[in-house]
Amino acid sequence: MQKLHTFSAFIFVMLFGLTACGYHLRGSIDLPEQLERVAMQSASTNLQNAMKQLLRGSGAKLVARPSAASLVIQLQQEDMQRRVLSLDSTGRANEFELTYRLRYQLLNAKGKPLVDKPLVAELHRTYFNDQVEILAKSNEENVIRQELYRQAAERILSQAQAILK
Question: Which domains are present in the chain?
Fold first, then answer.
Protein backbone atom coordinates (compact mmCIF):
# COMPACT_ATOMS: atom_id res chain seq x y z
CA MET A 1 0.00 0.00 0.00
CA GLN A 2 2.89 2.34 0.82
CA LYS A 3 4.35 1.79 -2.67
CA LEU A 4 1.03 2.75 -4.28
CA HIS A 5 0.92 6.05 -2.34
CA THR A 6 4.55 6.79 -3.20
CA PHE A 7 3.95 6.05 -6.88
CA SER A 8 0.77 8.18 -6.92
CA ALA A 9 2.63 11.07 -5.28
CA PHE A 10 5.44 10.75 -7.84
CA ILE A 11 2.96 10.85 -10.75
CA PHE A 12 1.20 13.87 -9.24
CA VAL A 13 4.47 15.77 -8.83
CA MET A 14 5.52 14.97 -12.41
CA LEU A 15 2.18 16.10 -13.86
CA PHE A 16 2.25 19.27 -11.77
CA GLY A 17 5.81 19.97 -12.94
CA LEU A 18 4.84 19.58 -16.59
CA THR A 19 1.90 21.95 -16.34
CA ALA A 20 3.83 24.47 -14.24
CA CYS A 21 6.63 24.77 -16.79
CA GLY A 22 4.22 25.76 -19.56
CA TYR A 23 4.53 22.48 -21.47
CA HIS A 24 2.00 22.00 -24.25
CA LEU A 25 1.76 19.69 -27.22
CA ARG A 26 3.62 20.63 -30.39
CA GLY A 27 1.36 22.60 -32.68
CA SER A 28 -0.77 23.83 -29.82
CA ILE A 29 -0.97 27.58 -29.28
CA ASP A 30 -3.12 29.47 -26.79
CA LEU A 31 -5.25 31.61 -29.09
CA PRO A 32 -7.42 34.58 -28.15
CA GLU A 33 -11.12 34.53 -28.93
CA GLN A 34 -10.59 36.62 -32.09
CA LEU A 35 -8.62 33.74 -33.62
CA GLU A 36 -11.13 30.93 -33.09
CA ARG A 37 -12.38 31.12 -36.70
CA VAL A 38 -9.80 31.99 -39.37
CA ALA A 39 -10.17 32.18 -43.15
CA MET A 40 -7.37 32.28 -45.71
CA GLN A 41 -7.57 33.87 -49.13
CA SER A 42 -5.20 33.09 -52.03
CA ALA A 43 -3.08 30.65 -50.00
CA SER A 44 -1.54 27.47 -51.37
CA THR A 45 -3.05 24.15 -50.36
CA ASN A 46 0.09 23.28 -48.40
CA LEU A 47 -0.10 26.46 -46.31
CA GLN A 48 -3.83 26.00 -45.75
CA ASN A 49 -3.25 22.43 -44.55
CA ALA A 50 -0.50 23.57 -42.17
CA MET A 51 -2.77 26.32 -40.81
CA LYS A 52 -5.66 23.88 -40.45
CA GLN A 53 -3.52 21.47 -38.39
CA LEU A 54 -2.16 24.26 -36.21
CA LEU A 55 -5.61 25.70 -35.55
CA ARG A 56 -7.10 22.27 -34.85
CA GLY A 57 -4.40 21.60 -32.25
CA SER A 58 -5.32 24.89 -30.58
CA GLY A 59 -9.08 24.35 -30.53
CA ALA A 60 -9.79 26.77 -33.39
CA LYS A 61 -10.75 26.11 -36.99
CA LEU A 62 -10.05 27.23 -40.53
CA VAL A 63 -13.30 28.26 -42.20
CA ALA A 64 -13.93 28.45 -45.94
CA ARG A 65 -15.94 31.67 -46.06
CA PRO A 66 -14.38 34.96 -44.93
CA SER A 67 -17.82 36.11 -43.77
CA ALA A 68 -17.81 33.31 -41.16
CA ALA A 69 -14.33 34.21 -39.87
CA SER A 70 -13.24 36.52 -37.07
CA LEU A 71 -9.84 36.93 -38.81
CA VAL A 72 -9.04 36.76 -42.53
CA ILE A 73 -5.49 36.15 -43.74
CA GLN A 74 -5.22 37.53 -47.23
CA LEU A 75 -2.07 36.37 -49.02
CA GLN A 76 -0.70 38.82 -51.55
CA GLN A 77 2.45 36.86 -52.41
CA GLU A 78 3.63 33.33 -51.64
CA ASP A 79 6.88 32.06 -53.10
CA MET A 80 9.04 28.96 -52.46
CA GLN A 81 12.49 29.03 -54.09
CA ARG A 82 15.40 26.59 -54.13
CA ARG A 83 18.95 27.62 -54.91
CA VAL A 84 22.29 25.84 -55.02
CA LEU A 85 24.70 26.86 -52.26
CA SER A 86 27.72 24.71 -53.10
CA LEU A 87 29.03 22.37 -55.82
CA ASP A 88 31.34 19.36 -55.67
CA SER A 89 34.41 18.91 -57.91
CA THR A 90 32.28 17.43 -60.72
CA GLY A 91 29.84 20.34 -60.74
CA ARG A 92 26.98 18.59 -58.94
CA ALA A 93 25.05 20.43 -56.27
CA ASN A 94 26.19 19.56 -52.73
CA GLU A 95 23.98 21.89 -50.76
CA PHE A 96 20.66 23.64 -51.36
CA GLU A 97 18.79 26.45 -49.67
CA LEU A 98 15.00 26.65 -49.58
CA THR A 99 13.51 30.12 -49.11
CA TYR A 100 9.82 30.61 -48.40
CA ARG A 101 8.51 34.18 -48.65
CA LEU A 102 5.06 35.44 -47.75
CA ARG A 103 3.44 38.83 -47.94
CA TYR A 104 0.01 39.01 -46.40
CA GLN A 105 -2.58 41.26 -44.84
CA LEU A 106 -4.61 40.55 -41.71
CA LEU A 107 -8.25 41.61 -41.94
CA ASN A 108 -10.93 41.76 -39.26
CA ALA A 109 -14.40 40.23 -39.62
CA LYS A 110 -15.59 43.31 -41.56
CA GLY A 111 -12.71 43.12 -44.06
CA LYS A 112 -10.77 46.08 -42.65
CA PRO A 113 -6.95 45.72 -42.39
CA LEU A 114 -5.61 45.38 -38.84
CA VAL A 115 -2.32 47.08 -39.80
CA ASP A 116 -1.52 49.71 -42.43
CA LYS A 117 1.18 47.81 -44.31
CA PRO A 118 1.23 44.20 -45.49
CA LEU A 119 3.22 41.85 -43.24
CA VAL A 120 6.20 39.87 -44.55
CA ALA A 121 7.57 36.51 -43.44
CA GLU A 122 10.72 34.92 -44.85
CA LEU A 123 12.01 31.51 -43.80
CA HIS A 124 15.25 29.79 -44.88
CA ARG A 125 16.46 26.19 -44.60
CA THR A 126 19.59 24.56 -45.99
CA TYR A 127 20.23 20.89 -46.56
CA PHE A 128 23.00 18.69 -47.89
CA ASN A 129 22.43 16.90 -51.21
CA ASP A 130 23.95 13.40 -51.16
CA GLN A 131 24.28 12.19 -54.78
CA VAL A 132 24.14 8.54 -53.66
CA GLU A 133 20.83 8.77 -51.79
CA ILE A 134 18.84 10.75 -54.37
CA LEU A 135 15.40 9.41 -53.45
CA ALA A 136 16.01 9.99 -49.74
CA LYS A 137 17.10 13.57 -50.45
CA SER A 138 13.93 14.20 -52.44
CA ASN A 139 11.90 13.00 -49.47
CA GLU A 140 14.02 15.14 -47.15
CA GLU A 141 13.28 18.22 -49.25
CA ASN A 142 9.54 17.50 -49.06
CA VAL A 143 9.75 17.19 -45.27
CA ILE A 144 11.66 20.49 -45.07
CA ARG A 145 9.04 22.19 -47.26
CA GLN A 146 6.23 20.95 -45.00
CA GLU A 147 8.14 22.24 -41.97
CA LEU A 148 8.48 25.65 -43.65
CA TYR A 149 4.72 25.77 -44.23
CA ARG A 150 4.10 24.86 -40.57
CA GLN A 151 6.53 27.51 -39.34
CA ALA A 152 4.97 30.12 -41.63
CA ALA A 153 1.52 29.31 -40.22
CA GLU A 154 2.90 29.67 -36.69
CA ARG A 155 4.49 33.00 -37.55
CA ILE A 156 1.26 34.33 -39.08
CA LEU A 157 -0.73 33.37 -36.00
CA SER A 158 1.83 34.79 -33.58
CA GLN A 159 1.86 38.09 -35.47
CA ALA A 160 -1.95 38.13 -35.42
CA GLN A 161 -1.90 37.50 -31.66
CA ALA A 162 0.55 40.38 -31.11
CA ILE A 163 -1.57 42.76 -33.18
CA LEU A 164 -4.85 41.78 -31.50
CA LYS A 165 -3.53 42.30 -27.94
Answer: 29-164 (3.30.160.150)
